[in-house]
Amino acid sequence: MKVLVVGSGGREHTLVWKLKGSKKVAKIFCAPGNGGIYRQAKCVNIKADNIKGLADFAFRNKINLSVVGPEAPLARGIVDEFQRRKLKIFGPDKKGAQLESSKVFSKEFMRRHHIPTASFRVFSSAAEAIGFCKSVQFPAVIKADGLAAGKGAVIVRDLEQASSIIEDIMLKKIFGDAGDRIVIESFLVGQEVSIMALADGKTIVPLLPSQDHKQAYDGDRGPNTGGMGAYCPVPFLSPEVMRQIEEHILIPTINGLIKENITYKGVLYAGLMLTETGPKVLEFNCRFGDPETQAVLPLLKTDLYELMTAVVNQKLSSFSKLDWRNGAAACVVMASRGYPGKYTTGVKIGGLENIKDDNVFVFHAGTERKGDRLVTSGGRVLGITGLDSDLKLAINRAYRHISRIKFEGAMFRRDIGSRPVKPINK
C-alpha cells in the first residue's frame, strides 16, 4: 500500500516512522516533509495547506491512504476535498474539525451535550469583554476563537493584564482573524493530561494518556509554546479516572457529534484538567498532538496502518483492545534560541551520528537539508524520545542523548516529567 503523510513536523516524522513499520505499507510519501523524514519517506514539495495540490498528487499516484498531521488543512476542509474525489484520508472533515478550529463552537458544543468544562462567556467586542473582566474572579483564561498554533490561550491574573491581552487579540490582531471572537473562561486547578483517542464516527478507542509541557522554560514559566516535551503513560492517572474520562467525556463527545450529523473519523484529542470535582475539558484538538505523539506512538505495538484503515472504513470496533509495549517513553524538545518568539534558522546541527541506542528516537521537526548539511529551519527543531522500563529511566535516557546533539543556540527544558504529583482517584 502507498501512504501520503501531510505535514513537516515532529508529529509527522513520528507518523512516518510508525507507518514504515507496517508490513502492509510499501511506500510512504510526505508533503512537504523535513530534514529527517526523507530517510523513511519520499518528500514531496507540496505545502500542507495546498489542498488541491495534495489531492491531485494522491489521485495521480494512486495513494491508498492519506494521513493529515497538522490542524490547519483539516480546518480548511482537506478531508472534504479528498472524500469528494473518493480518496481515502484519515482525519475529520471541516465540520468535525471545528472542535479545534473554533473555541466558541467547541465550548458551546460541550454545553449542549453536558460535557464537563470550565464556565465561559463568548465576546465579539473588546469593550464588552473588558467590561466583563471587571467582575470576574482572577486568574481567568482568555482564548482566541480560531487557530493560533497552540499559543491562543492566555492565563491572566488581573484586570490590567486581561485588558491588555484582549486588546492584543481583538484589536491589534496578533492572531489575525482567529481573534475576531474570544472566550473568557474560569481558571481550572489540577493536573493536566492529554488523551488522544481514535474515532471512526461510531466507536472510540483511547490511546495511552500522556502529559505535555506547554511553557517555554523550566518550572512551567514563560510563554506558551507548541509543546516542549511530553511523557507517556501518566503514572498518577488511575483506572477509575480513566473510566470517568471515557464515560463522561469521550463517549458523550462522539454521541454528541452523531446527534449533530457529524461523522468524526480520525483522532479526537482531549486536553483535560483533573480537578477536585473530576476531569474537565480544557480544549479539544482534531489531530495527533505534538509532542505527545512522539511519546505515545513508540509504545504502540498494534499496526498503525491497520488502525487508521479501520478508522476510515468505520471498522474500529474490531480493535477494542490495543497492544502496548511495557514501560514508559519521554520526549524532550530541542528548540532554537528565542522560540516561541523570533529565532534564527540555518544553524548547522551536529552529533546525530552519536545516537546509537535502539531505545532512543530522534524525531525531526524544524530541520532541512542544505547539501550534505543538516540545519535548523524552525522553532522546535528536534524531539528526542527515550524508552525504558519506567518513566524515570526513560527521562534519563532522553537527556543523556540530548547532550550529544549540538547546534548553536539550542534550548530545552530540563524538567520534563518531573512535576511532583500524587495519584488522583476522583
Unreliable segments (pLDDT under 50, ≥5 consecutive)? 422-426
Rg result: 21 Å
User: Within the CATH hierarchy, at the fold level, what is the topology of the largest domain?
Assistant: D-amino Acid Aminotransferase, Chain A, domain 1
Strand order of the largest sheet: 3-2-1-4-5
Number of domains: 4
Which architecture of the largest domain would the CATH scheme give at its second level?
2-Layer Sandwich
Q: Return the CATH class of the largest domain.
A: Alpha Beta
Supply the helix-strand structural class.
alpha+beta
DSSP strand tally: 22
Q: Count of helical segments?
A: 12
Q: Roughly how many Å apart are the termini? A: 45 Å
Roughly what percent helix? 25-40%
| Main sheet specs | 5 strands, parallel
Q: Which helices and strands appear, and what pairs or packs with what?
A:
Blueprint: E1 2-7, H1 10-20, E2 27-32, E3 42-43, H2 51-60, E4 65-68, H3 71-75, H4 78-84, E5 89-90, H5 94-101, H6 103-112, E6 120-123, H7 126-133, E7 140-144, E8 153-156, H8 159-171, E9 182-186, E10 191-200, E11 204-206, E12 211-212, E13 215-217, E14 221-224, E15 229-232, H9 239-259, E16 265-275, E17 278-285, H10 292-296, H11 304-312, E18 328-335, E19 360-364, E20 367-370, E21 373-376, E22 380-388, H12 391-402
Parallel strand pairs: 1-2, 1-4, 2-3, 4-5
Antiparallel strand pairs: 6-9, 7-8, 7-9, 10-11, 10-16, 12-15, 13-14, 15-18, 16-17, 18-22, 19-22, 20-21
Helix pairs in contact: 5-6, 7-8
